[in-house]
Specification:
The complex is a heterotrimer of chains A (309), B (222) and C (318).
Chain A lengths: L21 H24 L13 H28 L2 H33 L7 H21 L4 H33 L14 H35 L3 H17 L44 H9 L1
Helix pairs in contact in A: 1-6, 2-3, 2-5, 2-6, 3-4, 3-6, 4-5, 7-8
Chain B lengths: L1 H18 L1 H21 L3 H30 L5 H8 L3 H30 L7 H25 L6 H12 L1 H15 L3 H31 L2
Helix pairs in contact in B: 1-5, 2-3, 2-5, 3-5, 3-6, 3-8, 5-6, 5-9, 6-7, 6-8, 6-9, 8-9
Chain C lengths: L4 E10 L2 E11 L4 E5 L6 H8 L5 E8 L2 E2 L11 E4 L11 H11 L4 H10 L16 H15 L3 E5 L7 H16 L3 E5 L3 H7 L2 E6 L2 E2 L26 H12 L35 H12 L23
Parallel strand pairs in C: 3-8, 3-9, 6-7, 7-8
Antiparallel strand pairs in C: 1-2, 1-4, 4-5, 9-10
Classes of the chains: A mainly alpha (309), B mainly alpha (222), C alpha/beta (318).
Chain lengths: 309, 222, 318
């Protein structure tokens, strides 16, 4: 199964210059509105919690952020599975976009959780199950993105990245289960950390937070996907052009005008082409060739011009 | 596939025995890690005693990283990977063989570290059945996951840094489980430890299956 | 008979570089074809593409009856590639390496032994770790690994490089013998003297394309009027070299069965063991082979002796 599917990119004047579109502008507008609403509810209209005072307001960001972190991870894993089945670049781009968003959100989760923890527990960090497994999830995502960033052939990189992406959700689940199980042995008595009982206005504020986060998440995902897609398009091989270049190189070599370059246009990715130890030891045997560089023998020239005509 | 696995396992082990790196370098490194912990934590008997199980498994993981790196390096040598592709060996078999070879080395390391811990930290082994079962399950888990992740980063210039970054978070459940199981055994409450052993076994099976399935794609993708 | 290799306008990519930009090549069973061309022309890539290691993205590519575009892995076991890399484990001995790769390809232990003997590695060198070998000895070891698999198609990339004269002669003799037993050889070389003496025909490559259309049809074009081809009658020139080589080399196990696999090109002079001077006192590997040879039937396409034949199976006879 070929992994590379070279197609001619659309070099039309309608090629997108940005990632915006009417749909995303509407979405963006809605997202802004939702964020404003959530901010109002969260900061102004809803009362402070009885137990946690104002720090509960962090929850309106923290909880949605955590939930959408998981959404991002699921997107990555599902897209990786789809890539493995379909081998089309779009899934690969989507997997990357999902993971990046998930990383941003997981850091946000940890930060808000940590800030919440300071007044509540008196400390920025505690090894409770949720925080610990969230921190490990952050490391998992960092590793995944580090692998994506490696400077490799897409052919070599995509299968590795896809398999790592596929493992992301199972790893996250394994980690969170085992951490929870572990910490539950020691912390039966701790305060219910991040699941406060909330209702009424507080619940409304939380829902607004969810709504805002959802809209922002989708908006960011679409844009990030499009950016990635454009990157992919820009870097994609124009096979016909590359073939034409190579043939021109061949014509020049046969005509004897070009020196042996031995590499293709602009890339050096091929492994050693015929550069083994058996270099031209004896040009004498070949049909009378003018140069000692092993260029195609003279009788071939007329044939070459036939071929390229 | 099993036949191929045995063939590859024997090859890997033969190479290790021949080069003696595992014996002369990885083993001493493992003991060295134990000693470093003693330096860092001050052999105030209290701390080392309580932390023995955890320190043991951390030492296993670090030494395991070395062994896994060596295992991946075998197939990075001069065209061996291409040879594997051309040979018609079942990729799943190759994976299982490599994992088995690493597992054998890890088991030897664990025995060595066990002796080290008994001697250096004055540990008293108890609940031997649980200890052995945990070692077996955890070893299979580390070898399976490690071989898969090793294949993910095989051939990369940055393999040596990427492997720990990718593998260790994934092995966190193994560390947690193995340590808890050991603690249960050493504290004389094996019943608490068996569920953790089960978790380790499930982990091992999961990663072995995933690795066997994925290895082919990774081998082909350069 | 269907060609062993059929490439038509084949394009193959190395990363994003079209190393092969339009290859037309047909190789019939039993042919020895030499690929000739400057560095960077794509000879190595062409060989690797025929092995299914480099994906072909355009055009037709059929090797040993299987479509390489859809099933690149299907022919791997039946093909032997001798490339720039050795594919050997430095820490293992010669014998261990050949045995490993032989077993991996499911060959009989006897074939492994025969391969070691044929390349002169069954003596002192058998137990030497590969790391301690010279480059030429490593090449011979890689060649032994290839021989042990008894592939139907040999893909040789600069096979003579690094070998001394005796080893080169030995290689040539092995190639001729394998072809006589039904194998096909595609070879890239800068050693034009020697390679042209060995080859049935020459195909020129420049910038990823074949200069001449490579179709042989039913072999009728070989020796044809195409001015670009250098056609050599190996029986005349190569045969002499081969016989000289046979005197020096340990006896080559097994005779090709007379009449096996009619070859649509000027037939390669087989190397019969019995009538050849200098082989009487051959070391033991020959005796392992000869009884089998005598027993094998003369019918084309029949199962020739396991030691002698390079894995020709009736089902793959076109």
């Amino acid at each position: 199964m070929t992994i590379v599917s070279p197609e001619t990119p659309t070099a039309s004047p309608d090629a997108p210059t940005g990632t915006g579109s009417p749909a995303t502008r509407v979405l963006g507008g809605l997202a802004l509105a939702a964020v404003a609403l959530a901010a109002l509810y969260g900061l102004v209209w809803s009362p402070a919690d009885v137990e946690m005072q104002d720090s509960v307001r962090l929850m309106y960001v923290h909880v949605p952020a955590a939930v959408f972190t998981y959404v991002g991870c699921v997107i990555t894993t599902v897209a990786s599975i789809m890539w493995l089945r379909k081998r089309t670049a779009g899934w690969d781009v989507l997997a990357g976009a999902g993971a990046e968003l998930a990383l941003v959100l997981v850091i946000l989760t940890l930060a808000t959780g940590s800030l919440w923890g300071r007044p509540t527990w008196g400390t920025y960090w505690t090894w409770d199950a949720r925080l610990t497994s969230t921190a490990l999830l952050a490391v998992l995502l960092t590793g995944y993105l580090a692998l994506r960033r490696l400077d490799l052939d897409p052919d070599a990189r995509s299968p590795r990245v896809a398999i790592l992406g596929l493992l992301l959700v199972p790893n996250a689940i394994l980690v969170s289960r085992s951490v929870e199980w572990w910490r539950s042995l020691h912390q039966r008595a701790t305060v219910t950390t991040l699941d406060p009982q909330i209702d009424g206005d507080l619940l409304v504020a939380l829902m607004c937070g969810f709504l805002a986060m959802a809209l922002v998440f989708v908006w960011l995902l679409v844009h990030r996907f499009r950016v990635g897609w454009l990157e992919h398009q820009a870097g994609r091989l124009d096979l016909d052009q590359a073939l034409a270049d190579r043939r021109a190189e061949g014509r020049a070599a046969v005509a004897g005008t070009a020196p042996d370059t031995g590499t293709g246009p602009g890339t050096g990715t091929g492994p050693g082409e015929d550069t083994g130890p058996g270099e031209d030891t004896g040009p004498a045997a070949s049909p009378p060739a003018s140069s000692g560089t092993g260029a195609a023998p003279a009788p071939a020239a007329p044939a070459a011009t036939e071929v390229t005509a | 596939m099993w036949r191929d696995a045995v063939l590859v396992a024997r090859r890997d082990l033969r190479i290790e025995l021949r080069s003696r790196v595992a014996i002369s370098q990885v083993g001493p490194f493992a003991v060295l890690v134990l000693m470093l912990f003693a330096f860092a934590l001050d052999p105030d008997r209290g701390v080392l005693d309580r932390a023995t199980a955890g320190l043991y498994w951390v030492a296993v993981l670090f030494s395991g990283l070395l062994a896994l790196g060596r295992s991946a390096a075998i197939d990075e040598a001069d065209g061996v990977r291409e040879g594997l592709r051309m040979s018609g060996l079942e990729p799943g078999g190759v994976f299982l063989g490599k994992a088995a070879a690493v597992a054998a080395q890890l088991l030897a390391l664990e025995v060595l570290l066990g002796a080290g811990v008994v001697v250096l930290y004055d540990a008293e082994p108890a609940g031997p059945l649980l200890l052995v079962a945990t070692c077996l399950a955890a070893t299979a888990a580390v070898a399976g996951a490690g071989t898969l992740y090793g294949a993910l980063v095989a051939g990369l210039r940055v393999r040596e840094t990427m492997l720990p970054l990718l593998l260790l978070p994934a092995l966190a459940p193994v560390l947690i489980g193995a340590t808890r199981a050991f603690e249960a055994a050493l504290d004389g409450v094996p019943a608490d430890g068996w569920p953790w052993c089960g978790l380790l076994a499930a982990f091992a099976v999961l990663y072995s299956v995933a690795g066997a399935l994925a290895y082919g794609a990774l081998l082909e993708g350069q | 008979m269907k060609p062993v290799v059929h490439l038509s306008a084949a394009v193959a990519l190395l990363g994003r570089f079209p190393a092969l930009a339009g290859i037309d090549l047909d190789v019939a069973r039993g042919e020895i074809v030499l690929l000739r061309g400057p560095n960077g022309a794509g000879k190595t890539t062409l060989l690797r593409a025929c092995a299914g290691l480099v994906p072909v993205v355009r055009g037709e590519a059929v090797v040993l009856g299987r479509d390489l575009r859809r099933h690149p892995r299907a022919i791997r076991r039946r093909v032997g590639l001798l490339g720039h890399v050795t594919g050997l484990h430095d820490d293992l001995t010669v014998g261990e390496n050949v045995r490993f790769w032989g077993r991996a390809a499911r060959t009989e232990p006897a074939d492994v032994e025969a391969a070691l003997a044929l390349t002169g590695l069954d003596g002192r060198l058998r137990d030497v770790p590969v790391a301690e070998l010279s480059a030429g000895q490593r090449r011979r070891t890689s060649l032994a690994c290839l021989l042990a698999r008894r592939p139907e198609l040999w893909l040789l990339d600069e096979p003579h490089a690094g070998l001394d004269a005796g080893a080169r002669d030995q290689l040539d003799a092995l190639v001729v013998q394998a072809v006589g037993q039904g194998a096909t050889v595609l070879m890239a070389s800068h050693e034009l003297d020697r390679a042209q003496a060995l080859a049935h025909r020459v195909v020129d490559l420049v910038a990823g394309r074949t200069i001449t259309p490579g179709a042989t049809g039913a072999g009728a074009d070989v020796g044809g009027a195409d001015a670009d081809r250098v056609d050599v009658e190996p029986a005349d020139v190569g045969g002499a070299d081969v016989s000289a080589a046979a005197d020096r080399a340990p006896d080559l196990a097994g005779a090709p069965v007379p009449g096996a696999e009619p070859v649509p090109v000027p037939p390669v002079e087989p190397v019969p063991p019995a009538g050849r001077p200098g082989t009487e006192g051959a070391p033991s590997p020959a005796s392992v082979a000869t009884p089998d040879v005598e027993a094998s039937p003369a019918a084309p396409g029949a199962e020739v002796s396991p030691v002698a034949a390079p894995g020709v199976e009736p089902s793959h006879v076109a």
